[in-house]
Specification:
Strand order of the largest sheet: 8-9-10
Largest sheet: 3 strands, antiparallel
Strand content: 15-25%
Number of strands: 11
Distance between the termini: 73 Å
Radius of gyration: 22 Å
Helix content: 25-40%
Shape: globular
Number of domains: 2
Number of helices: 6
């Protein structure tokens, strides 16, 4: 009888352990699911003039309607998405750790997708809306006011007096090559430049301004959003 009681005692311990393990897994799954939604926190925004900007780069993996945005982990997947003019995102060097700091890099096909890349209540700025920002911040000195006051290599930090908190998240070429993290930050605009090109803005460690140029839509840049 004593032997049977001991056996039952150990069986009860095993059942408790299994139950706790299952609960922990369910809680983790719930947390992961919540972190991969297309939502924005109202605390991560700043008013600059008459505009309200996000203070972080976009880091969503779903469109506004809930459809997943494909992740391109390999050079081949990234190139294929560009060639087929399909949306894609990646982390810099495919490292999730970079995502926690810099957000995701998106090709322009994700930016322009009608399902909506920007979270509800926000939208991706046009080239002219980026110009409104730089004009308000002083034009040639706007970059210094937009760059974060830490995180830039080669003494390239700014003052961040605007609250924009621009970080050097680097970029990805249309062929999959990653470049310039720590030295340059690139942000898409919603404005098309040509059939295969779209406009974007750049902050650099050596420059006091926000430059304006265009690139292949198959490149990967960061995204900032404006509030509706």
């Amino acid at each position: 009888m004593k032997k049977l009681s001991v056996i039952l005692f150990f069986l009860s311990l095993i059942m408790i352990s299994i139950s706790c393990g299952s609960k922990s897994f369910n809680e983790a799954s719930s947390t992961n699911e919540a972190s991969s939604t297309n939502e924005a926190s109202s605390t991560n925004e700043v008013a600059i003039g008459n505009q309200v900007w996000m203070t972080e780069n976009l880091n969503v993996d779903k469109f506004q309607n809930g459809d997943p945005i494909p992740e391109a982990k390999t050079d081949e997947e990234w190139m294929r998405a560009g060639e087929k003019e399909q949306p894609a995102w990646c982390y810099y060097e495919n490292d999730p750790f970079n995502g926690t700091k810099y957000g995701k890099l998106y090709n322009w096909y994700a930016v322009k997708d009608p399902r909506g890349l920007a979270p509800k209540g926000f939208y991706i700025p046009s080239d002219s809306e980026w110009t409104i920002l730089t004009d308000y911040l002083g034009g040639t000195t706007s970059g210094t006011k937009m760059k974060s006051n830490k995180g830039w290599n080669q003494n390239g930090n700014g003052t961040n007096s605007s609250g924009f908190s621009g970080l050097p998240g680097g970029s990805r070429s249309s062929t999959g090559t990653f470049y310039f993290v720590g030295e340059f930050g690139y942000w898409w605009s919603f404005s098309e430049y040509a059939t295969a090109d779209a406009t974007y803005r750049t902050l650099g460690y050596r420059f006091a301004y926000l430059s304006n140029t265009y690139n292949k839509k198959a490149h990967g840049h960061s995204v900032r959003c404006l509030k509706d």
